[in-house]
Amino acid sequence: MTDTAGDTPLWDRSAAALAAGIRDKSFSATEVAQSFLARIDATNPALNALVDLRPDEALAQAAAADAAVAAGADLPPLHGVPVATKINTSQRGYASSHGVAAWAGAIAPQDAACVAALRDAGANLMGRSNSPAFAVRWFTANDLHGRTLNPWDSAHTPGGSSGGAAAAVAAGMVPIAQGNDIGGSVRFPAYCCGAVGLRPTMGLVSGSEPRGAEEFDSPLSFQTMAVHGPLGWTVDDVRLGLHAMVTPDLCDPVGLPLRPPLGDAGPVKVAIVRDVGLAKPHPVVNAALDDAARWLSEAGHDVEEVELPLLGEAARLWSLLLYEELRTMMPEIERFGDDAVRVSLASSFAAAAETWGERPTLDAYIKGYARRGTLISRLQQYLGADRVLMTPVAAEPPFEQDADLAGDARVRELLAAQWPMQAVPVLGFPAMSVPTGIRDGLPSGVQLIGGRFREDTLLHVATAIEARSPRTRPALAG
Fold first, then answer.
1. What residues are paired with 269 via a beta bridge?
2. Among residues 163, 261, 350, 396, which one has the fewest Cβ atoms lying within 10 Å of its Cβ?
3. Number of helices and strands in the chain (H, E)
């Protein structure tokens, strides 16, 4: 897809092209907002990707952006560009509902740090994206806002928990959406909907939320695994979103006080890991890896297949460290959550018990975190400054809707298939989901994993894949 003028509607242009056009007065921020609002009107009723829409606010933000252009002000990089934020991330004046009906009136008094960063970068915040209750499913539905559908096939999940963000990006409702990821919640929805999704290195984008009257003591796994990141239709959209979201913030327990460089990279070594012994990759998944490997070789990168068992070990650790801390939150989830999240988590705990026992000991938990540090060191040594891993995003194509409600046996399969999603958060490395085309009517793609704070390398390699991958929007109204 190109950003040429002429017949390309504004909603189908990249974030960079929109920002440039607003800056040089080829079109106004108001025209951009009107184009995206019309696209939302045409597509969102069928998909339910964005909730709590306020068109008047979006148009008012656009008018203010146009006034700044007219005044000759210095313009930030996302000036006038539409961006969606997720319902579990604070945006002042909007509910941080987490998809929970009882929290529909939980209006945020101020922005989370990453939302404030997007606002400071000039983004027109024009929609809240849907997620599952408590953001703990790879499926996007809740009792407050309903179900989000995959724009390619409604019988399959749009992913979760940032499923609304991914569906909105794929449908052209926004070029960039903010999401968050503790077990694949940016990368998996991007895969399911044919978008690009980046999970940054821990500490690069602040996870700080505004402090209310009742402080929430974030569990250790949330502090060390959960990150905010951008989803976009193109790699350049994600690059621009990441640059905007990077937030030096010492209020974040793992935040950095500086901005690491996010420049370009040269040829790199690409190590393909297809399988770690947890789930045999589906033929469609293998085909996506084969395509991406060929394209990267054509682009001059050194590609080889390797075995890397530590990724499987990290994936198994995820189900210990995360689920044992989720267990402490179950009284609140049982009280406020919907039936789907309760059923899904019950099956997930049952699957984790097959590896760690019904009630893992404190000793196992402590040793799990100790082992995590060793695995981080080993992987960083392997990657160095010039190697990227390429893995499946999942060992299966996008799952059928509500597959996590089909019983313990199916959930065991889902958890095994998601080993590439689980391994990365435990280790804290950057990773991104990059589409490779459409197979059997559904998007396919690969995951790239880079050394810590080497998002530049990931984006460079992803660009080579994107340049050779067929891209098309899903067939939707409008």
1. 302, 387
2. 261
3. 15, 13
Residues 6+ apart with CB under 8 A from 65: 22, 29, 79, 80, 122, 124
441: left (phi over 0), alpha (psi -120 to 50) or beta: left
What single letter denotes the amino acid at residue 29? A
Q: Two tokens at 465?
A: 């894949």
Q: Which residues contact 476 (CB under 8 A, 6 or more apart)?
A: 42, 43, 46, 47, 151, 171, 172
Residue type, 54: R
> What ranges do the domains of the chain cover?
12-468
- pLDDT tens, 231-240? 999 999 999 9
Distance CA 187, CA 180 (A): 9
- The pTM assigned to this predicted structure is 0.97
Contacts of 361 (CB under 8 A, 6+ apart): none
Model confidence over 402-425: pLDDT tens digits?
999 999 999 999 999 999 999 999
Q: Which two tokens stand for residue 96?
A: 């941080």
State the residue for tokens 């989720």: 326
Q: Which residues are catalytic?
A: 86, 161, 185
Q: Give the DSSP H or E segment for 96.
A: none
CA nearest 306: which of 212, 389, 422, 372?
389
Name the nearest CA neighbour of 82 among 32, 41, 153: 32
Instruction: Give the whole-angstrom CA distance, residue 87 versus residue 95.
Output: 7
Q: Is 12-468 a CATH 3.90.1300.10 domain?
A: yes
Token reading at 270: 């690409």
